[in-house]
Structure formats: structure tokens, C-alpha cells
Design goal:
Catalytic activity: 4-amino-2-methyl-5-(phosphooxymethyl)pyrimidine + ATP = 4-amino-2-methyl-5-(diphosphooxymethyl)pyrimidine + ADP; 4-amino-5-hydroxymethyl-2-methylpyrimidine + ATP = 4-amino-2-methyl-5-(phosphooxymethyl)pyrimidine + ADP + H(+)
Protein name: Hydroxymethylpyrimidine/phosphomethylpyrimidine kinase
Bound molecules: adenosine-5'-triphosphate, 4-amino-5-hydroxymethyl-2-methylpyrimidine
Pathway: Cofactor biosynthesis; thiamine diphosphate biosynthesis; 4-amino-2-methyl-5-diphosphomethylpyrimidine from 5-amino-1-(5-phospho-D-ribosyl)imidazole: step 3/3
Number of helices: 19
Structural class: alpha/beta
Function: Catalyzes the phosphorylation of hydroxymethylpyrimidine phosphate (HMP-P) to HMP-PP, and of HMP to HMP-P.
Helix content: 40-55%
Largest sheet: 8 strands, mixed
CATH architecture of the largest domain: Up-down Bundle
Order of helices and strands: EHEEEHEHEHEHHEEEHHHHHHHHHHHHH
GO molecular function, one term: ATP binding
Shape: elongated
Number of domains: 2
């Protein structure tokens, strides 16, 4: 059969990498072939599946294993490779020495560019998935791989050493084994208890590339090993560097684990939510671009008229403003903008920041964008100072601009390291361009209303944050929200906006209300952008 379709086979890598999983099944969908296909899809590949063993299992454990005849395995492998060019192959549960021999014989003829071997021996539940007498065959099989992804127990079997007690020991074992075999190792510390979970790519020449993430306190870890290996194979198969592939796979898996429990699948070690990222990005895609609030009337004669404006769906209970409005106009702005204040409090970025599950890369991207934002926000405030009437207002906006630049410098000094984004992303850019253009080019009341949400909604977020433990990964950053000077500055901004509204014409007030609501929306987008970047790209 192998020679019947040669014309169809092309060695050119397709835009969507074609990835074959060779693994056992999990009818509950969290591990094995099911996890592999979901992970390959999530990582941007076309998934294919050859089944080594049928496993009756769920989130509690394995009940029975049925291994079809080896000839049938070989028939499956050939059916795929006679017809399809493979950009990457990932192996998981092989189960028996006979299965390993059959896959090895097939690989002798079809060595793929990328072979990721997850040397599955024992499931998360503690059940054996590899017969004890097949361990040596698995160790030999690993020599064929581009990269192996053992957990620390499997690494000990590969190296014939005792199980590593800490990351340094695991790295040392991997370094020795990789140097001997010429096969790269991803050293996983999921089974250790450190606060950080590091996946390190160990190259045969001893070069280490660590990819860090935070440890999640969850039991939703069924199939994490399968998922990481399948996503890694896919990213390598599309031509990513090892560092980019591992960074993407680790970041995506982190999000998938963080949202696994919400699936409510099973009562044991639950699966991860492989498609959380895809659903979140789809929702973000649908929400952007957005329409400027068009329900504000052309002219506003009274605060009551403004308070009656509804732009989105308001929360059932009115939201209490932590820094109170300075009068009826700012009270009405608050009322009209509540729908978006509620969305900010609930948004995935703030939730993940508060519960500590936010990925490092997202946090650092957010900080870098925040520093860029402050530099431009200061220009908008300075423009208001330049256009102010009266010394008190001029001093207030000028001091706010200076304070903002000090905060920007502090962000760089204390928080931002090397190698961070130095260019505004499109979300930051849209917000700052809007602020600067409004503060310079529109009636002063419109500019003042546009800069208000940054004061008011930030103070609101600060006031509503829960206390977090010191070991919380973002404790120090969350602490900066509580600065009392910021509340005073917000009170000042509210007083000025209130006065500007009192003195403005009805049409300028309407424009100012639209600017306030638009800026609220920019605040939401600004937080959310931290989750929209693709880690590793
Ligand atoms: N509690 C956790 N918090 C954050 N990430 C985790 C956690 N547990 C696992 N991971 C991620 O999942 C990856 C694989 O996990 P682990 O080291 O447990 O592999 P495994 O034992 O091969 O998995 P499996 O249980 O599916 O066989 C880790 O390298 C890490 O990226
Ligand atoms: C089929 C299969 N492969 C791997 C694992 C490891 O989680 C599992 N539970 N089931």
C-alpha cells in the first residue's frame, strides 16, 4: 500500500500542521486521544488519531484496558501514513512491549520531522498504563524522540535513578540523559510542590530554556501531561522554535487548567478546559470594535436626563461608588456608566489578577502597556492644564500630569525588567489617541469627562479588591491600588468635572457624557488586552 499514493505526499509543511497522536482512549474526554485531539486543535493543528488501547476510565481512575491486536495498530498507522504527510507525531500511552515494537517498526519507515514522546507509565489516578515488563522498551523507544516529556517519576525510570526530590535534581538527571541520548527533555515540575511550576527545555548540549508559570490550586489536572505534549508537538510541527513552542503550550495549558473545575466534569481529578482560550478570544473578537454610545441625547439639559441614559444592561443592584460623586452631574455619569463598571469588576483579567491565576506574560504585558499609557495620559492632563481657566484648575491638572509621570517612572523602576514591549498595542493606542485628541481638540468639559474614568474606575477597582495573602503572586502590585493619594486625586477630578458640566452648554454636556462612557469602555478593553496576547508569539 505504501507506494500507491506517492503523488499525494508532499514534504512541504502546511500552514496548519498535520499532527498524529498515537495514544490510548479516555471515554470521559480528559486524557489520551481525546485530550490530544482537543489540544492539537487548540494549538492550531489538524489532529489525527491512531488508537493503541481502549481504556475504560473516568476522572477517578482506570477500570479496564483492552488492547486490540498489533496488526490492527499497524493497519491504522499505515492507513494514515500512506495518505497523509505528517508534520509531527506525538505518542502517549503505548501500554505493552508489543505495541512499542509495532510503533517502532512503523517509525523505522516513517520517521517524522518532529516526534514528541510522552512516556506515559502511570495515570494521574495512580493506575498503571504501561505494563511493568514494557518499561525497558519504553526507555529505548524514547531514544527515537525529538523531545520527551516525562513527569519526574517517568524521568527517574528513564535515567534509572531515584525520583528527583526537587527541580535541581530533575534538571541534573535530564541533563545527563539528554547528553547521552541526544534527545531533548522537557523537565516538568507539576508533581513537585513549589509555588512556581517550571517547564524547562533541556537540549542535549545542556542549554536550558525555562518557561515559568504559577502553580494552580486545583484538582483539575487529569490529562495535563497528554495535553502539554500534544500542544508542544503541534507548535513544533508548525515550525516554532523550542522556546516559542513550550512557552505557548505552557501558557495555554495554564489557562486550561485554571478553568477546568468550571466544566463540572466528574467528581475525581477533573479534566482541563482545552477550549477556554478559544472561547475567550472569540468573545473578545465579537466585542471589538464597539460602537460609541449612541443613546445619549443630542443635548443634556439636566442631570436627571443623563441618569436615565442606558447604554448596556445595568446590574440588578446599583453599584456603590467607592469615591462618591461630587454633585448631580457626576452622580448621573456614574449611573449611566454602571453597566460597564460591573463588567470591569467581573472581567477575566481582573478575576485572574485577584485569584493569582493570571499568567506571568499577561501581567508583564499589562504593566508595560500601563507605563506607555501613563506617558500619554499625562499629555492629556497637561492639555487640560494648558486650557484651564483659573489657577486652582490649572494647578490641579498640571499636578495630576506630573504625578502620572512619576507613577510611570516608578513602574519602570520597580516593576518592569528587560525585554518588555516598548510599543503601544492597538488597544492602548486607541485609548491614548482618544484621550489626547479629546483633551486638545474638544470643548474642555469633554476632555475632562474623558480623563475621569481612569481616576474613578481605577479607584473603584482598588477599593473593591479583597485582601490577599503575602505569598499571592501579585500581592505587591495589588497593594499599590490602595494608595490614599489616588483617592484624593479622584475627588479633585470629580469636583472639576462637576463644575465643567454645570458651566457647559447642553450640547457640550452630551458630548462629554459620550466621551465619559467611551473612556469607560476603553478601561475595560485595556484590562482585557492582557489576556488577548498570545503568549509565545
Ligand atoms: N497545579 C498545577 N498548576 C499549574 N500548572 C500545572 C499544574 N499541574 C500541572 N500543570 C501543568 O501541566 C504540565 C504537566 O503536568 P504534570 O507534570 O503533572 O505531567 P504528567 O504527570 O505527565 O501529567 P498526567 O497527570 O496527565 O500524566 C506541567 O508541566 C504544568 O505545565
Ligand atoms: C489513555 C491515557 N493516556 C494517558 C493518561 C495519563 O493521564 C491517561 N489517563 N489515559
Amino acid at each position: 500500500m505504501a507506494s500507491s499514493y506517492p503523488a499525494h505526499l508532499s514534504s512541504r509543511t502546511a500552514a496548519v500542521p498535520r499532527v498524529l497522536s498515537i495514544a490510548g482512549t479516555d471515554p470521559s474526554g480528559g486524557a489520551g486521544t481525546a485530550a490530544d485531539l482537543k489540544s492539537i486543535t487548540a494549538a492550531g493543528g489538524y489532529g489525527m488519531s491512531v488508537v493503541t488501547a481502549l481504556v475504560a476510565q473516568n476522572t477517578h481512575g482506570v477500570r479496564a484496558i483492552h488492547t486490540p491486536p498489533t496488526d490492527f495498530l499497524t493497519a491504522q498507522l499505515r492507513a494514515v501514513s500512506d495518505d497523509v504527510t505528517l508534520d509531527a507525531v506525538k505518542t502517549g500511552m503505548l501500554g505493552t512491549a508489543e505495541t512499542i515494537a509495532a510503533v517502532s517498526a512503523w517509525l523505522d519507515e516513517h520517521q517524522p520531522q518532529v516526534l514528541v514522546v510522552d512516556p506515559v507509565m502511570v495515570a494521574t489516578s495512580g493506575d498503571r498504563l504501561l505494563e511493568p515488563d514494557a518499561e525497558e522498551a519504553m526507555v529505548q523507544f524514547c531514544h527515537r524522540a525529538t523531545v520527551v516529556t516525562p513527569n519526574i517519576h517517568e524521568l527517574a525510570v528513564l535515567t534509572g535513578e531515584d525520583c528527583a526530590q526537587d527541580e535541581q535534581q530533575a534538571l541534573a538527571q535530564a541533563r545527563r540523559w539528554s547528553a547521552q541520548t541526544g534527545v531533548a527533555v522537557v523537565v516538568k515540575t507539576g508533581h513537585l510542590t513549589s509555588r512556581r511550576v517550571t517547564n524547562t527545555w533541556m537540549a542535549p548540549n545542556g542549554t536550558q530554556t525555562p518557561v515559568e508559570s504559577t502553580r494552580l490550586d486545583t484538582t483539575s489536572t487529569h490529562g495535563t501531561g497528554c495535553s502539554l505534549a500534544a500542544a508542544l508537538a503541534t507548535r513544533l510541527g508548525r515550525g516554532d522554535t523550542p522556546e516559542a513552542a513550550l512557552t505557548w503550550a505552557t501558557g495555554w495549558l495554564h489557562e486550561s487548567i485554571a478553568h477546568g473545575a468550571a466544566l463540572q466534569v466528574g467528581s475525581g481529578h477533573g479534566p482541563v478546559d482545552h477550549s477556554h482560550r478559544a472561547r475567550r478570544l472569540q468573545a473578545a473578537g465579537l466585542a471589538t470594535p464597539w460602537l460609541a454610545p449612541d443613546t445619549v441625547p443630542a443635548a443634556l439639559e439636566s442631570p436627571e436626563q443623563l441618569a436615565a441614559v442606558t447604554v448596556g444592561v445595568n446590574p440588578s443592584e446599583p453599584i456603590h461608588a467607592a469615591v462618591p460623586p461630587a454633585g448631580p452631574w457626576t452622580a448621573s455619569l456614574w449611573a449611566a456608566g454602571q453597566y460597564i463598571t460591573a463588567q470591569i469588576a467581573d472581567c477575566d483579567f481582573v478575576t485572574a489578577l485577584v485569584d493569582g491565576t493570571l499568567a506571568d506574560r499577561s501581567f508583564r504585558f499589562y504593566l508595560a502597556q500601563d507605563a506607555l499609557y501613563l506617558g500619554q495620559y499625562a499629555r492629556a492632563l497637561a492639555a487640560l492644564a494648558a486650557r484651564s481657566e483659573g489657577l486652582e484648575a490649572q494647578v490641579f491638572w498640571a499636578e495630576s500630569a506630573a504625578g502620572c509621570l512619576k507613577d510611570e517612572a516608578e513602574l519602570h523602576r520597580t516593576w518592569l525588567g528587560e525585554g518588555l514591549e516598548t510599543v503601544s498595542g492597538p488597544v492602548t493606542r486607541a485609548y491614548t489617541d482618544f484621550l489626547v485628541a479629546t483633551a486638545l481638540g474638544q470643548d474642555r468639559v469633554v476632555g475632562a469627562a474623558a480623563v475621569l474614568p481612569c481616576f474613578w474606575l481605577y479607584a473603584q477597582t482598588g477599593a473593591t479588591l479583597p485582601e490577599v495573602a503575602q505569598e499571592h503572586p501579585y500581592a505587591a502590585w495589588l497593594g499599590t491600588y490602595g494608595d490614599p493619594a489616588f483617592v484624593t486625586a479622584t475627588q479633585g477630578a470629580l469636583a472639576h468635572v462637576e463644575r465643567e458640566f454645570e458651566q457647559a452648554s447642553p450640547t457640550a454636556r452630551a458630548e462629554a457624557a459620550r466621551a465619559y462612557l467611551t473612556a469607560c469602555r476603553h478601561e475595560l478593553e485595556f484590562f482585557d488586552q492582557g489576556l488577548r496576547i498570545e503568549p509565545g508569539q
